[in-house]
Amino acid sequence: MPALDLDTSVSILSGVGSRRAEILVAHQIVYIRDLLYYFPRRHLDRTTVTPIRKLVRDESHSIIGQVETFGEKSTRRGKIFQVIISDGTGLLILTWFNGIRYVKHLFKIGDRLAVHGKIEWYNGFSIIHPEFDKLEENDDLLSTGSVIPLYPLTHELRSAGIEQRVFRKMMREVLKSVQPARDIFTDAFLKDYNLVSLSEALQQIHFAENIERLKTAIQRLKFDEHFFLQLLMALRKTSLKQTATRSLPDIGPYFRTIADSLPFDLTKAQKKVLKEIHEDMKKNVAMNRLLQGDVGSGKTIVAILSSVLAVGNNVQVAIMAPTEILANQHYQSFVKELNKAKIPCTLLVGNMKKSERQSILDGLKNGKIPIVIGTHALIQEYVEFKELGLVIVDEQHRFGVLQRGKLLDKGLNPHFMAMTATPIPRTLAITYMGDMDLSIIDEMPANRIPVVTKVVKPARLPKVYAFIKDEIKAGRQCMVVFPLVEESEKTDLAAAVENHRELNEKIFYDLDVGLVHGRMKGKEKNAVMAKFELNEISILVSTTVVEVGVDIPNATVILVEHADRFGLTQLHQLRGRVGRGSDKGYCILVHRHESDKSRLRLATMETTNDGFQIADEDLKLRGPGDFFGLRQSGFIQYKIANMITDGSIIRQARKAAFTMVETDPDLCHDQHAGIKERFQLDYRDKLDMVKIT
Questions:
Q1: Mean pLDDT across 495-518
Q2: At what angle do helices 568-575 and 596-607 cross, to 10 degrees?
Q3: Residue 142: pLDDT band by 50, 70, 90 thresholds?
């Protein structure tokens, strides 16, 4: 076969007819390049294959065995499908509870399987829902080495005859005939970061000579993916630093008035963060800062004082929140402090009367209203400012880039600060927010008493209800929260409404029990929340609309139903809604669907109040896609990299990318030509985020 180019169609390969080519294209394998970057989902190291007789319970093992028998079986819990394999030393049972209709057609007697999974004991060694791949009896030398690549093959690929052996054969043919991949990095760069060449990495990821060389290949390919994302962040940050804006150097007449009147001392962390913000605002390039702080760490007062600094320089401030409840909460907090300095402040939300809204719009346009707090209503076309100098966005991950951009466009490159009470794991922060400067309030106010957290089973609820009654008798309040997820929104809402009825009519019949959920109109929600704030409602039943923004110092108990359905970070934020006054707070998590995983997760909530530790655990358990609801965003499309496990590689890639951009902001040096070309290709849909010629 003649030498192949990376841009050659895969249809040229032997054994790839029109049908196979069509199916490969449907899997985004169009060119030889795509095939080379279709990485194995795992590797079977034959040197670590365990004989069945030496398997150890509760440990993960790789086994190679032959199918002896298989079939469906009825149990009290329903039908299961089982396959029994042997390797001459013993028998291993493979069991499926789900996907039986598909799985049962995959096996025949005598099939050789490479199996991987955690060993359990049910009438013999067993693996539940194992990872497996078929090995051919007549496999040639492609599979006889010590490391076998196992590719992610779908039902469609298998139905076209593209099994593991066929796929390996195609890959071997490509690697023999393709022109060596041109490395985008210089030899000096590879040496500095201890990386193997791209050609070496591509060869070894598919056909590793040994495990050590496989590890170096994976290291290089992961580095590439992390590097280009960090390069985007570095270029973005540089672009933002070039964005000229009005500097806001003066402390102004209002800051001291408010700061000196506070009934508490600012923590060292708050003072440090305020200094960082003011230093940014003094510059004539726009601030782009993320303010991160755990629930109850005092971000709101930092936002107030930052706004006051801006107003003292005769510019306007816009604060955008994701919900009306949170916007209203911020408005109340701001007004309380701003009244001391007689600074006008207004609230702009969607459901306002036309006359009321028009008065606010006029005040923003002529500059008589210096501070406005609102929801998405702020980004409507009809909202104009005289001179918008500072934009603050709360829980910024709930807004899209375009939404934030629309608000920023209402000023001449205003300073920008995002706030979040969601503790963000470091790897996630430098990946999703790597273009921002980071300020962390890592100290809690001295008077905050840690919330006591208990996980209970439903059988304990009568005792919990008795405890809640005691707290209410003592003049305190309680929240009861139900999960609400998109997939079963109607069912969940009905459950919340029904449980409110039961709590109101049967359990707490002598108390005032309110209900608030996302389907209610803004006015209805606000009316219920106002009653709760005034202690006219003793117990508030809600869906997760209380997750952020509800600050009721008198609320001491939060009861979370179906706690196993929440992410840990969500639970931590919910927990932060109580114990905000002088009384001890209690968080009670009702565990209804037990599993080893859910028990482990909820145990984390009992053992720590550290939001960052919880966030790290949440990231491990849920993955980055679910953490910020970014699974469908297309922001990151990793083939081999892993944000959860690649912390050291991410830091290395970040250092390399930022160092490169510092020395060559436009990537115009000859040695960076290949890097620039690859970046512009891979991130062509995000080039509007950076300034690169």
A1: 84
A2: 30
A3: very low
Whether residue 104 lies inside any domain: the answer is: yes
Residue 633 has pLDDT above 50, yes or no: no
DSSP labels, 155-203: HHHHHTT--HHHHHHHHHHHHHHBPPPPPSS-HHHHHHTT---HHHHHH
Going by C-alpha positions, the residue among 439, 262, 395 that lies closest to residue 340 is 262
**Are residues 541 and 661 located together in one domain of the fold?**
no
Q: How far apart are CA 400 and CA 398, in angstroms?
A: 7
Which parts of 465-538 are beta strand (E)? 477-481, 513-516
Q: How high is the pLDDT of residue 404? A: 66
Amino acid at 665: P
**Most confident stretch, 190-194, 433-437, 627-631:** 190-194
Question: Is residue 667 within 8 Å of 675, Cβ to Cβ?
Answer: yes
Residue 209 tokens read as: 């000579």
Do 196 and 332 fall within a single domain? no
Q: What is the mean pLDDT of the chain?
A: 85
In the chain, what are the helix, strand and coil shares in percent, each to the nearest 5?
45, 20, 35
pLDDT of residue 630: 45
| Beta carbons within 8 Å of 22's beta carbon, 6+ residues apart | none
Domain assignment of residue 562, yes or no: yes
* Residue in the block written with tokens 């009905």: 494
106 and 192 in a single domain? The answer is no
Domain limits at 591?
452-608
Query: Whose structure tokens read 């970046």?
Result: 679
Listed residue (140, 105, 133) closest to 40, CA to CA: 133
- 431 shares a domain with 462: no
Rg (CA), the chain: 30
> Which of 337, 228, 194 lies closest to 658 in space, CA to CA?
228
What whole-number distance in Å separates Cα of residue 325 and Cα of residue 329?
6
Q: What is the pLDDT of residue 140?
A: 46
Contact partners, residue 370, CB within 8 Å, separation at least 6: 311, 315, 316, 317, 343, 344, 345
For the beta sheet containing 555-560, the strands, ordered from the edge strand earlier in sequence to the opposite edge, are 452-456, 586-590, 555-560, 477-481, 539-542, 513-516
Provide φ and ψ at 439, rounded to 5°. -120, 130
Nearest of 75, 55, 49 to residue 120 by alpha carbon: 55
- CATH code assigned at 418: 3.40.50.300
pLDDT tens track for 9-47: 988 888 888 889 999 999 999 999 999 999 998 887 777
In-domain check, residue 147: no
The DSSP 8-state label assigned to residue 79 in this structure reads E
Q: Reduced to 3 states, what is the DSSP secondary structure of residue 43?
A: strand
- pLDDT reported for residue 548: 46
